């Protein structure tokens, strides 16, 4: 519903803007045509006003005058009292009453250039000592052309708006795809978070009911329910912390202070702590000869530790028993490359593009065999983005699953 309203709002705003722009452009073009038409008619009137009335009907050699010989017009010389001294008509037929009415209106007007709109006549007055010459020109054709132009603009505008509507309709679907994706991810995020929180809460409540029903028993006799509750509480705490990190990161509210870090030492320390988990699954971590010493980068130390922890725990969690995990850390020119390879369930190629999405699991059945909530890798991706790193994954039956992280190398001088 929200996306539909957003789409309608997007289309409406865009179409209003397009309408305003088209209206402005067409109005500008129309007014320009009105002005040019007016200017031309006035220029024609001024040209014919310079002619001797008696010679106007004679063949003309001037190009403009030759054109005017086919234009409906008439010229009169009139004295101060309004008596017509002479007149000539060209390409125009008009009854005497209309003719005299037009001449009288022009003569009595205070303006030298004017328009008698009711008759589609424009005039220009030129004053002499004993008389006044008034040139008249029929502008009905000009007005008709302007009317046709107006209709053309209206039709063109309507067709253009319709054309833009379909374009905007298509673009709205395209432009809102990221919004729709984010919206769906948010809904899925909330649904998944609710689902994940519901399970431990149910377990906690069930354990509390058991303890409540055995009030007289000792703590030792009920220790398994307490430990189970504690484990569920820890999982809830981890889930909430992961969700808070992502939420703060989206809002740009996480600590992004960066320092120069010895990546080699950081990785060594984390592998030593994670070896216990690997040992429980009969998994060996190879790293002694594959991690170069004293490699430095600039990053947020806490986030870098989280990144390595997520990837190492993920590798242990999804490794088959009696297999090995190989951690490599090498410098390649100005970059440091970290690779973590393990052998476990293969990530299908079509799943690789989604592996860093929130709550995404390759196992759609959402079984809890491996624990976790599907947020770890999305946090890893967020950390690499925040620290100008790149993370990728490759997975195959023959080579196993390999996560790669590329980071900038920093040269640090060793103390003498």
Strand tally, please?
12
Number of domains: 3
Helix content: 40-55%
CATH topology of the largest domain: Profilin-like
Largest sheet: 5 strands, antiparallel
Beta-strand content bin: 15-25%
Question: Which CATH architecture of the largest domain is right?
Answer: 3-Layer(aba) Sandwich
Radius of gyration: 44 Å
Query: Within the largest sheet, what's the order of strands?
Result: 2-1-5-4-3
The dominant shape is elongated
Helix-strand sequence: HHEEHEEEHHHEHEEHEEHHEE
Q: By helix and strand content, what is the structural category?
A: alpha+beta
CATH class category name of the largest domain: Alpha Beta
Low-confidence stretches: none
Mean pLDDT value: 85
Cα(first) to Cα(last) distance is 67 Å
Note the total helix count: 10
CATH superfamily of the largest domain: YNR034W-A-like
Q: Please, could you describe this protein's structure?
A:
Strand 4 and strand 5 (132-138) form a beta hairpin. The two termini are 67 Å apart. 52% of the residues lie in helices and 18% in strands. The relative contact order is 0.07. The mean pLDDT is 85. It folds into three domains: 1-171, YNR034W-A-like (Profilin-like), CATH 3.40.1840; 178-250, Signal transduction histidine kinase, dimerisation/phosphotransfer (DHp) domain (Helix Hairpins), CATH 1.10.287.130; 259-408, Heat Shock Protein 90. It contains ten helices and twelve strands. The strands form three sheets. A five-stranded antiparallel β-sheet has the order 2-1-5-4-3, sandwiched between helices. The protein has a five-stranded mixed β-sheet with strand order 7-9-10-12-11. A two-stranded antiparallel sheet has the order 6-8.
């Amino acid at each position: 519903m929200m996306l539909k309203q957003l789409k309608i709002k997007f289309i409406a705003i865009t179409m209003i803007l397009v309408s305003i722009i088209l209206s402005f452009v067409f109005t500008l073009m129309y007014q320009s045509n009105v002005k040019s038409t007016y200017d031309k008619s006035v220029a024609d009137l001024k040209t014919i006003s310079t002619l001797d009335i008696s010679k106007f009907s004679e063949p003309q050699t001037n190009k403009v005058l030759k054109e005017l010989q086919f234009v409906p017009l008439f010229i009169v010389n009139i004295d101060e009292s309004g008596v017509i001294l002479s007149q000539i008509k060209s390409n125009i037929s008009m009854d005497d009453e209309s003719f005299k009415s037009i001449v009288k209106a022009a003569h009595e007007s205070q303006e030298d250039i004017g328009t008698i709109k009711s008759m589609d006549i424009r005039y220009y007055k030129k004053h002499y000592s004993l008389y006044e010459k008034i040139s008249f020109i029929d502008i009905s054709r000009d007005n008709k052309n302007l009317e046709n132009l107006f209709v053309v603009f209206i039709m063109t505008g309507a067709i253009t708006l319709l054309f833009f509507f379909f374009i905007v309709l298509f673009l709205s679907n395209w432009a809102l795809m990221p919004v729709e994706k984010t919206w769906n991810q948010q809904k899925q995020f909330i649904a998944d978070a609710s689902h994940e929180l519901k399970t431990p809460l149910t377990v906690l409540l069930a354990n509390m009911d058991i303890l409540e029903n055995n009030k007289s028993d000792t703590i030792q006799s009920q220790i398994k329910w307490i430990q189970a509750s504690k484990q569920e509480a820890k999982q809830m705490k981890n889930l909430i912390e992961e969700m808070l990190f992502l939420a703060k990161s989206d809002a740009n509210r996480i600590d992004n202070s960066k320092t120069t870090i010895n990546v080699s030492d950081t990785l060594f320390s984390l592998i030593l702590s994670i070896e216990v988990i690997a040992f429980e699954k009969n998994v060996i971590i190879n790293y002694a000869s594959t991690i170069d010493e004293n490699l430095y980068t600039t990053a947020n130390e806490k986030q870098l530790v989280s990144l390595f922890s997520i990837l190492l725990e993920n590798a242990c969690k999804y490794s088959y028993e009696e297999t090995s995990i190989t951690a490599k850390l090498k410098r390649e020119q100005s970059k440091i490359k970290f690779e973590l390879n393990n052998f476990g369930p293969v990530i299908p190629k079509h799943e690789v593009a989604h592996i860093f999405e929130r709550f995404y699991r390759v196992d759609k059945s959402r079984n809890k065999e491996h624990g976790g909530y599907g947020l770890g890798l999305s946090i890893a991706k967020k950390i690499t983005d925040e620290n100008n790193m790149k993370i990728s994954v490759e997975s195959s039956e023959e080579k196993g699953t390999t996560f790669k992280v590329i980071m900038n190398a920093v040269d640090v001088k060793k103390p003498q």
